[in-house]
TrEMBL record:
This is J domain-containing protein. Residues 855-980 form the Aldehyde dehydrogenase domain. It comes from the Eukaryota. Pfam families: Aldedh, ARC6, Arm_PDR. Residues 102-233 form the Plastid division protein CDP1-like 1st alpha solenoid domain. Transmembrane segments: none annotated. It comes from Tetradesmus obliquus. Residues 462-487, 577-599 are annotated as: Disordered. Residues 256-431 form the Plastid division protein CDP1-like 2nd alpha solenoid domain.
Length: 1223
């Protein structure tokens, strides 16, 4: 009896004629249903089999298959006919479950038959896998065509199935089919048909893309681009939307964020007229953003837009926006105007406004007392907010706020201040007409202008003998142009109280009293509340919640703004203008922290503000001080109204023009331009940045050494830490020059099927890293796809609307900040707001100079400040994504408002993070020589000592086998290495306390290191601390739950290991289960041991659940190799964030990385670049940077390499002896 495979070969011989059957090859078993291939049922007769065979054979698919594929299709059809035509062979086939063994040579033809018989899912799976491995083979176009047809079948099935996202699924299949056909230039008619289908479904496709979760930013950007094309770029006759553009936009709004809707209208081509509905959309989006961010000036802008819309349509009354205007009026604290707009200001007389009767009835129904309609107006406005604002956009647009809440709006301090100032401005005309004669008003307008320039002040003068403050006597009331009113008399009392209270009261308190004299009790109440809150917070020993602290900081910020606008201009120096603004910003920075420098506590802020006031006062001559007192008395007595008008204008301006807002506004205006910059232009920008960075590298190293302290290597240690930035810029440039699709050195499959890309080192970098191999392991089941953003653009897709990413910079290392900025720009296609950490913000101006080509074009901005500024940036509506490098507590404070996760995250935007690690160094026992021990002991010591241990990947834990005979010798060598290094000062805030806690927990720790006189002190006279080494710990005794963040090292000896393989299993389990974090781990293994226990070693590398695994080299080298990925192992959630989520670096732009593995040789000479304390690095590394930058010019690179070698030999590239080094 013939089997199916023998039938196939027999058919090949009988039909092909002169063609030879393919040679024996690997086969694959497929569920090839012969009945479906021939269109028969299982009860078919012998005659019907022959007829069906002839019919199917005479109707080959007309999509451009090659003759060879059609030939082998015929071979398989004949095999099917002969199998079903013989009763014995049919029985054997039926009993085998319709499985057929097909040679890989015949797979393309088999895929054709599978697709024709309806097995589209199997065709997509098999064909896509085959194309990844054989994309250049002759049969590849035929396989791609079969896969494309299968995608079309899947799209049709999705549409038939129905559901919420059927069009999304169908269009994705059609896009993939079109991509394959275009790539292999097949089936032009089918391409046209797919394009027509995609165009027909494009409106629903755009809406379903926009409705995806916010985390799927790339897909949503595609939806936004498609929406913009449908709405603006296509004429109504050609657009699938047709004439119902307004209806389409209404559906789109329900899937968008408010700022996205405004971005859509910003992209409106010139000359296009907006309909009334579209103008209403703009006003609603503006109001929504203002309500969401508690920015009342945006609500006022929306009210103006509603008013303009109503005036434009009042003739035909097509658009009744009285309700919208009334709601905005109430949000701005103007209830009388709201009632007037609704026709309810004089209900007794039957006055009717322009609003519908049902609205007025609603207000009356919800007002218990008909004489007080405010409750009903409140309910009406809240209902409008719920339906039109909160409910008018996507459900998560307001960060989990499911229902509108006017209480939160009016409780916001910024809103309260704005409403109070608006109320004062509204009451200004009546106040002026009642108190100031028109004839005198003109004269005093000139008087106020002159007084402004002469620094009208309410400050006391200093007694030269005692140094105390004495009040300045104001002018007698009789000398003023008018007699004092009761309000003015109250102002006199408060004014004197302000002067007399200045020496002992906090500055906000004094400012409140002074403001009361100038602007009245309303403004004073705000400042009084700020002062009371600050004093209570400072005096209270009990901790307050992060939410309360944030509200208090916002209140103090608003109070500071009001203080400066109302008071500072009245006590300024004679030369007004820029100096005055700088002084005001300095004082604002003391509270709000919006400028460079560490965040100030409330007490420190008060001291800084008072010192500035005294400095301003002391700069004046005695005559000027006396004159200011007289002018102040006249000003606050006679002209409070005019002063209030000027101060109100200044307050309104300051409320909406903070440094962060301005920076984000500039980025928001340029985000669309960035996504349109092609890869060649981006490569040119990186080249310009590289030139700047190399010129500034020494300055950065000098600044870092000044801040952290100078040791054996001088500036060499800091200079070495900048190497990853040079590498990152070069690697991203290579990726841009390759169109975002840079080819790896190799891609291979592991035995379990997981794919691995070999990416490092490339070009001439092996000169510094001989024998190193860097790999990116892809997530199981994922292929090596790269650069989704650039791939989409290259395939003709429209770029998205752009996005602003916030980078919260690390405080320990400037390379982390620079590389995070580069990743967000070039890997995630976002413009960047970089917020510098107060600990190392001295790097900010240097980074700004280095990245000047990006800053000047509006793609990058820098801001400064403390945690309050960071929180403000994170929750800012213009920020679309956040990346932070810091601690787990910092992440939780941002996401949950407390150091520990509680409830649901407060941020719905994409947040990625790198949060540190207790880094394990696994020492595999083996036949180590003395040289081996010295070499790798220095590797461990360098992993600890670099940056004084203030690294998220500092060596913290050495894991050894307790039964290893050489364990004691290795630990003694490690202790000697540490003892030969100079001690470092724990310069990072809080690190000294952690070291003290470590010493208290392990009193038997050995202090090591050389104490060199006159060295080892960071600025601020921080003393150097010895290295602390504790050995012989059991797994239960070790401190593994949090980072030690300093120069301390533990050794854990694992007992009861049966052999080396068992030790590796136990060490991996200990690192995975007990050591906090999943960022990086290092493993050191002798080549002979690796060869002897090859399977156990491979299992250990694969089993380490860390984002970076380095073999025979410190973890810090994994960070420096920028083509590799850097970040926590995938799987963390916001509630259990661990080491973070997401990857950076990744200059090959792989879409689905799992981890990186860096394999180093066992030993090599000269001393590795990362070994701390090397002499000559400071002089050699600038030449090394030039060598790296000249990779495309071998002759020039060789000359630079010679210079590197000369400087290296001069310093011997050896660890310096502290007593011999001259720094």
């Amino acid at each position: 009896m013939q089997t199916s495979s023998s039938i196939e070969l027999e058919a090949g011989r009988t039909t092909i004629g002169s063609r030879r059957a393919p040679a024996a090859a690997d086969t694959i078993t497929l569920p090839l249903d012969y009945y479906s291939c021939l269109g028969l049922s299982k009860s078919c007769s012998h005659t019907s089999v022959r007829q069906a065979y002839e019919r199917v054979l005479s109707q080959p698919p007309d999509v451009g298959y090659s003759q060879d594929t059609l030939f082998y299709r015929a071979v398989l059809l004949r095999a099917a006919a002969e199998c079903l035509g013989s009763l014995p062979s049919r029985r054997a086939y039926d009993s085998s479950g319709c499985n057929v063994a097909v040679s890989m040579h015949n797979l393309p033809a088999a895929l054709v038959l599978l697709q024709e018989s309806g097995e589209s899912g199997l065709v997509v799976e098999l064909g896509s896998s085959w194309l990844q491995q054989h994309s250049t083979e002759p049969f590849a176009p035929d396989v791609a065509t079969s896969v494309a047809l299968a995608h079309c079948d899947e799209a049709a099935a999705a549409l038939d199935a129905g559901g919420g996202t059927v069009v999304l699924q169908a269009c994705r299949h059609l896009e993939r089919a079109l991509q394959l056909l275009r790539e292999y230039k097949m089936a032009a008619n089918l391409q046209h048909l797919i394009m027509q289908t995609l165009e027909d479904y494009s409106p629903r496709y755009a809406l379903e893309l926009l409705a995806l979760p916010l985390e799927q930013q790339q897909q949503r950007q595609r939806g936004f681009s498609l929406l913009r094309k449908l709405a603006w770029e296509l004429p109504p006759k050609l657009s699938p939307v047709g004439k119902d553009r307004d209806g389409f936009l209404a559906k789109a709004r329900s899937a968008m964020m408010p700022h996205e809707l405004l971005d859509l209208y910003k992209s409106l081509p010139s000359g296009v007229q907006l309909s009334a509905f579209q103008r209403l959309d703009i006003a609603l989006a503006t109001a929504a953003i203002g309500y969401q961010r508690h920015q009342p000036h945006l609500v006022q802008r929306a009210a103006s837009l509603f008013q303009q819309l109503g005036e434009a349509d009042k003739k035909d009354r097509a658009t009744d926006i009285s309700l919208e205007r009334a709601a905005c009026a109430l949000l701005l604290g103007n209830a009388p105007q709201a009632l007037q707009l609704l026709g309810l200001d004089d209900a007794a007389d039957g006055h009717q406004g322009s609003c519908e009767d049902s609205v007025r009835e609603f207000v009356l129904a919800h007002s218990p007392d008909s004489s007080d309609l405010l409750p009903g107006l409140y309910v009406l406005s809240q209902a409008w907010l719920q339906e039109a604002v909160v409910g008018g956009f996507r459900p998560d647009a307001f960060e989990g706020q499911a229902a509108a809440d006017l209480g939160q709006w009016f409780a916001a301090r910024r809103v309260q201040l704005y409403i109070q100032v608006l109320a004062a401005v509204r009451n200004l005309p009546q106040f002026v007409t009642q108190t100031i004669p028109a004839a005198v008003a003109a004269f005093f307008a000139w008087l106020i202008k002159s007084a402004w320039d002469r620094l009208l002040g309410s400050l006391p003068k200093r007694n030269s003998s005692s140094g105390s403050l004495q009040p300045t006597e104001p002018m007698d009331a009789s000398s003023t142009p008018h007699s004092s009113t009761p309000v003015q008399q109250e102002g006199d009392i408060v004014y004197h109280q302000a002067i007399s209270s200045r020496p002992s009261s906090p500055t906000p308190r004094a400012a409140a009293l002074a403001a009361a004299a100038v602007a009245g009790p309303a403004a004073a109440a705000v400042l009084e509340q700020a002062a009371a809150g600050a004093a209570a917070r400072s005096a209270s020993a009990a901790p307050i919640s992060a939410e309360d602290e944030e509200q208090q900081l916002l209140l103090e910020a608003d109070a500071a703004e009001l203080e400066f606008s109302l008071c500072l201009r009245l006590k300024n120096q004679p030369a007004a203008g820029q100096d005055e603004q700088q002084q005001a910003h300095q004082r604002q920075g003391a509270l709000f922290g919006a400028k460079r420098g560490p965040a100030a506590t409330p007490d420190e802020a008060a001291r800084q503000m008072k010192a500035l006031e005294m400095q301003m006062w002391d700069s004046l001559e005695p005559e000027q001080q006396q004159a200011q007192g007289r002018w102040a008395a006249l000003a606050h007595k006679a002209w409070p109204a005019l002063l209030l008008a000027a101060a109100a204008a200044a307050a309104l301006l300051a409320a909406s023009t903070t440094e962060v807002d301005n920076a984000l506004q500039r980025l928001d205006e340029h985000k669309q331009k960035w996504v349109l910059v092609d890869t060649k232009q981006r490569a040119a920008l990186l080249t310009a940045c590289l030139k700047n960075f190399m010129a500034l590298a020494r300055d950065m190293a000098v600044e870092g050494t000044r801040a952290k302290g100078s040791y054996e290597g001088g500036i060499g240690d800091e200079m070495a830490s900048l190497t990853p930035v040079v590498s990152g810029i070069l690697e991203y440039r290579e990726a841009m020059m390759a169109g975002g699709q840079r080819k790896p050195l190799q891609v291979y499959r592991r035995p379990d099927g997981q794919q691995v890309a070999v990416v490092w080192p490339g070009n001439m970098v092996p000169a510094f890293f001989p024998g190193f191999v860097g790999e990116i392991w892809l997530q199981p089941g994922q292929g090596p796809s790269q650069g989704e953003v650039y791939r989409h653009k290259a395939e003709g897709g429209l770029p998205g609307p752009g996005s602003v990413a916030l980078v919260l910079g690390a405080g320990n290392q400037v390379p982390v900040v620079a590389l995070d900025i580069l990743h967000m720009l070039f890997a995630e296609d976002r413009v960047v707001l970089a917020k510098m950490n107060p600990v190392n913000d001295y790097y900010g101006p240097l980074l700004r100079q280095a990245f000047a080509p990006l800053v000047q074009r509006g793609f990058l901005e820098f801001v400064y400040g403390g945690a309050d500024v960071g929180a403000y940036c994170c929750h800012h509506g213009l920020v679309g994504a956040v990346h932070l490098t810091g601690s787990e507590a910092t992440y939780n404070n941002i996401m949950f408002g407390s150091p520990r996760p509680t409830g649901s995250p407060r941020l719905s935007k994409r947040v990625t993070a790198e949060l540190g690690n207790v880094t394990p160094y696994i020492i595999v026992p083996g036949p180590w020589s003395r040289d081996d021990m010295e070499y790798h002991a220095m590797n461990v010591a360098s992993g600890l000592a670099q940056n004084a241990g203030h690294n998220c990947i500092a060596a913290e834990l050495v894991i050894t086998d307790a039964s290893w005979p050489l364990r004691g010798a290795f630990l003694a060598t490690l202790a000697t290495c540490l003892d030969n290094l100079q001690r470092r000062a724990p310069w990072y805030p809080g690190s000294a306390a952690r070291i003290d806690a470590f010493k208290a927990r392990f009193p038997g720790a050995t202090p090591l290191g050389q104490a060199v006189p006159g060295k080892g002190q960071a600025p601020g006279h921080i003393p150097a601390e010895p290295w602390q080494l504790v050995t012989g710990l059991t797994p239960e005794q070790a401190q593994t739950s949090e980072e030690n963040w300093g120069g301390v090292l533990q050794e854990v000896a694992l007992p009861h290991c049966h052999d080396t393989a068992d030790f590796m299993r136990q060490a991996v389990d200990f690192a995975n289960e007990q050591c906090w974090g999943t960022l990086a781990a290092s493993l050191f293994i002798h080549p002979e041991t690796q060869q002897q226990y090859a399977d156990a070693f491979d299992a250990a590398v694969a089993g380490l659940r860390y984002g970076s695994v380095t073999v025979n080299t410190p973890s810090l080298v994994g960070f420096s190799a920028t083509p590799l990925v850097w970040g926590a192992f995938p799987g963390h959630t916001p509630q259990d964030i661990g080491s973070g989520v997401g990857f950076v670096h990744n200059t090959y732009l792989y879409d689905h990385p799992q981890k990186s593995v860096l394999r180093a040789p066992w030993r090599y000479s000269p001393q590795p670049l990362w070994s701390v304390g090397q002499i000559g690095l400071g002089a050699a590394l600038p030449w090394a940077f030039k060598f790296m930058a000249s990779q495309h010019n071998p002759a020039l690179a060789l000359s630079y390499l010679v210079a590197v070698a000369l400087h290296a030999l001069r310093g011997s590239w050896a660890v310096a002896k502290p007593q011999k080094e001259k720094v």
